[in-house]
Amino acid sequence: MLRVRVETPCRPTESLEKVTRAVRNLFPDLRLESTADRVVGVTDRLDRLREQIRTQRIRDTARRQLLAGRRGDQTTVSLSKQAAFVGVVNFGASTAMGDIRVEIESDDLAAVIDYVAESTVSKDQAVRPHRVQVNRPES
Q1: Which of 75, 2, 1, 9 lies closest to 39 in space, CA to CA?
Q2: Residue 51 sits in which domain range?
Q3: Which positions ≥6 away from 85 have C-beta within 8 Å?
C-alpha cells in the first residue's frame, strides 16, 4: 500500500492554475481537491518525482530528506513551489509563498525510499572504513 498526499497553500497573489501546475509537474497523477486557498491531492505514484531526482542527480540529498522526515511508516518532506513550477525538485526551501508538503505513507517505507532515491553509495563503501595516508616529511 502506497499513499502520497500533497498539499500547498494558494496565496491571494498566486494563480490557482499556476499552483496546480506546479504540483502536477512533480505529481501528474494526483486526484486534486482544490479550494480557493489550498491545493490538496492524493496519488499512489511517485514515478515523476523519482525521474526528476535521478535527472537532477540529487539522489543522496533526496534520500537524506526522506529519511530525516521519517516517522514510523510515514515520511514528510517540503518542496519548493517555485522550483516545482518549472519541473525541478528542491527540498526544504521555506518561502513566504508556502511550500509543497508531501506525505508518503507505506507498509514498506524503506522500499519506497529506495525506489525514489536509491543510495549512490555501494554497500561495500558504506561499511568499509576509509584509510588515510599521511605523507611524513623525511628527516
Answers
A1: 9
A2: 2-117
A3: 18, 21, 22, 25
Distances (CA, A) of 78 to 54, 94, 109, 119: 18, 8, 17, 20
Q: Which residue has the cell 525510499?
A: 113
Residues 6+ apart with CB under 8 A from 56: 88, 89
Q: What is the pTM of this model?
A: 0.82
Residue 94: give its domain's CATH number: 3.30.1440.10
- Report the C-alpha gap between 44 and 27 in whole angstroms: 10
Alpha carbon distance 99, 93 (integer Å) = 7
**pLDDT one digit per residue (tens) for the chain, 139 residues:** 999 999 999 999 999 999 999 999 999 999 998 887 999 999 999 999 999 999 999 999 999 999 999 999 999 999 999 999 999 999 976 676 689 999 999 999 999 999 999 888 755 444 445 555 556 666 5
Domain annotation covers residue 133: no
Give domain status of residue 124, yes or no. Answer: no
